[in-house]
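The passage that follows is intended for readers who have already worked through the single-chain material. We present the inputs for a multi-component assembly, then the predicted structure in tokenized form, and finally a short commentary. You are encouraged to pause after the input and sketch how you expect the pieces to fit together before reading on.
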Amino acid sequence: MALKDFIETLTSNPGFSDCIAHVESYPSKAGVKGTLARPLHPLLQEYLDMKGIELYRHQCEAIDALREGRHTIITTGTASGKTLAFTLPVFERILDVPSTRALFVYPAKALANDQLKAIQEIERYTGCMSKSAVYDGDTAQSKRAGIRNESSIVLTNPYELHHILPWHHRWGNFFRDLAFVVIDEAHRYRGVFGSNTALLIRRLRRICAHYGAAPTFVLSSATLANPLEFARKLTSLDFFSVDQDVSPRSERHFVLFNPYRNGSGSRNTYTAAKDLLVSSIGSGLQTLCFTSSRRMSELVARWALEDAARQKGTCGGSISCYRAGYLPEERRSLEEMLKRGMLRGLVSTNALELGIDIGTLDAVIMCGFPGTLISTWQQAGRAGRRGKGSISILVAYENPLDQYFMNHPSSFFGRPAEHAILDEGNPYILSGHILCAASELPLDIPRDRHYLGNGLEESVLALAGEGLLRQSSHGWVYAGRGRATEAVSLESIASEHFGVLCEGRIIETMDRMQAFREAHPGAVLLHRGDTYLVQSLDLEERVIRVRRAEVDYHTEVVKRSDLRVREERERVMHGEFAISYGDVEVEESYVAYRIIQRGSVVKTEPLDLPAVRFETRACWLEIPERLVTLLIEQALELAGGLHGMEHAMIGIMPYHVLCDRWDIGGLSAVSFPSTRRASVFVYDGCEGGIGLSEKAFHLMDEILTSALELVRDCRCEGGCPSCIHSPKCGNDNRPLDRRATILLLESLCGMLSCHGG
Amino acid sequence: MLQSRAGHSLRGIAERWQKKVSKLHEYAVVKDGNLFRAGLENSFLFQSEYQAALEMGDRLAGEYSGVPLDSVFSGRCEETPCGESYCIETYMEATPPAIDSGTLSESLLSRLTLIHGIGPAMERRLKGRGYRTIQDLLHHPLYRRAAAAILHKIEAREAGSLEELTRERLPRSHPLVLKTSLVLEPEKLVFLDIETLGLFTRPVILIGIGRMERNGIRVAQYLIRDPSEEPAALWSFRRRLEGACDAFVTFNGRSFDIPYIMERLAYYGIQAGFMCPHYDLLQFSRRRWKGLLNDTRLRTLERKILGFERRDDIPSQLVPEFYEMYLRTGNCGPLIPIVMHNREDIRSLFRLYSCLAGEDAWP
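Having made your guess, compare it with the prediction:
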């Protein structure tokens, strides 16, 4: 038993066992079959029989709900048959009522193409003439009319939908008969992209209503902590949730592996991953290893090969590196070698999540927490063949979140996932979609408030003041110079765009803040797993010039923030401890960047960039006077305590809400001007806010508790990168006082629990 | 749930959108040429043309400062259920085309390929075997029935079905397609050209329609004095064509004018209500002068084929800018070149039609 051998090696070999923070084992379990309220259409049942599929209970729940026209969100795990759970009722309806139309929306083109194959298989088998087709930017002009007029199922992506809506009259028949809208991979619609998509979906619903249709929505998503809330935010509809996954599972092991368990030792994340990879393959397990960049993938693959050659093991020559951008034939040959077992190990960037069909392997090794629990479980899901045991290993980085999980395995395994956050009320994003909606149908304020919010009139008047909207007998009409949908990008906020130029080609665009953060001169920019060196950032032309560079370091920008409260919106008191939430104005200056090689800072270079000023939302804590006195009595440093608390809170936030560290900013002050108290702020890092600090306001007790656990349970003496040091701190992580941080967090958590949440 | 946020200045946000949207003006109307995005990159407008046009705008704004719109255009208001529309009617002298529709039937009858299932190779074979016309095929064992149906269509001399038939069975730009318009009374042809605020999803500014009348053309132009008048103008336009339009003649109207109007009608939820044959002269011009002209923009055709050059015209790309100048200032001066430009377009459309349809055979 290869798996047993490998686990044996891990637990007995001190080089490994010393680093094991936790092993979570799941026994195999049988699936729970379900029954439908009434039998499936005979052709579909035949199809299932032919494939040898029996439906599980959660699939039946989803099918029954969709048959009744209930909006349904399915958040069961990977390989639990989500796709089938919504395609069957769609096909059933098409078979019963051939004029039925359905829209399937995927966040990326490649996904739509993959799914089309699965849908066409059902079509072929059942003889259902639904003529399903992908309609996106690559669809030939000559095929478009046919798809609009005849395809029962149209697969597309949000970007295309954004451009389709203004042409709704050409899609009139489609919208009239639209019965289902499927939003697959719904968890991806979070943050700015999600907020834009939420408004796009409202525009879609408005058009459907114009044609007299009210389609049933299906969201298919990775596991979320807040499926119903999220579904409502994304669509403004009420949903039925299917989240009890009863599909069968083989035996699985999940290992938390901490190379930093005894402080910074001889190994780092990557060398540890390499050792694990070699050992796993040596035990006979086909293994997949995920890294954050292509460069690291190549290094880990190379090191592993060298090791294997030295040990004269059996795996030499059968480890490969996979990156995005392979040609289809290269990809196919790799897939083939994996399937035949000729390739024993594959090292990849997380680009593998998309577009390559390698099936499943025996073991997965992840270099560092992939940022979200969703990605973690998706990557881990690559291990586990039917009827065979599997193992996944998370090799920690030195950062607070990774270290928090290493020290608190129950937090990692005890909760399914994060809260997915978006904010359809961000005024920058909203106003763009108001323009788009007005270019689709004249705006009727009483009617369209229902889709675009109660503040619609004010926004309309402001936009009319600029001549972008004009009043007509039929409502407010779009009259801007350019096409509204052209001006609105789903991935950014209204501000200007910077193009990243490499060899004369724009490889991506970003907004100003992202540009300053990730693409300042000298920065190492990661794009689809490749590294690029930024040569210049032209503020006038808004062009970032980069060149491809294989470097073995990365850069982190150093930021200073200043903040002013504009309006407090909510405030709760826990005794003397006040937690508030409201509108703020932030000024961020990117003052320098650090060059980091193998985990340590080798150099800091100054930056000369103008400050960025923006309005956003923040959540803040005012520390009671009594606590300040207590700190002073104990000769602890207040500023260092507050600063440590701010870092710990920001470090732990991604555990609670789906976001990147950069999506939130923080600030602490011993005496903040407007509160006149010792205060700690966390704010949304983008203009207008996307709901992160609002969520933080509501989850504050959980955030403070986990921040306390993070700092208290760290094994360091006076603060380290695993707890209160922040790589982006503009004050060089000074002052920081770990003991003061712990005392503050302990006392605040105490006040929250005794005064109620 | 979606309350507005006092902390954010909505005016500031609106200003930012205005800035962003106005930067998109390179996507302005390119009336002559490829309308879709690929073609937009090379929207030709020279600096000198641009400069001259702006100077003309300024000059007109100066001349017409304080002059009421009505005294310049002397149009008349039409009542509609969507409010008032404003129509400017003019009559222009123009020589009607010398057209002989007698040979049309003959030409059609000799095209065996009009029958479904007969391609050029089969046609050659059939002609070799003595089947010279569709009438001859009435005796053919296989094509007998189809030939009868086509013959019936040709004898009925109904433009709609003939146009559809020829467009389906011949290249779309084939001269015979255009010639099917000859079965119509010339007065029933509608020469259509619109001016807009941009490329789709924005208001129409002016809808111009021309019809032959005695020895000239009667032009009716619905001018949208304010974007709020657009639905009324569309309504009037539709009403005017009801039962009185047998075919459209346009220049690039298949890609632009007609879909644009359809989009705007759908936008306001007004029933379209007109379905008639449509002769897009751009397509025919491309075929007729293929290899002889560098491009087939209307301006080029006027110069090289029709033999005249416009004066005091503004480039189509600048129409939205002139209209916005008018909206901003309320000064009707900048509207004059828009109205004139549209009228000239219709006149050229008429001449071009006479030229193309009047020729016996194209090279």
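Commentary: Residues 112-169 of chain B form one domain. The two ends of chain B are 68 Å apart (CA to CA). How closely did your sketch match?
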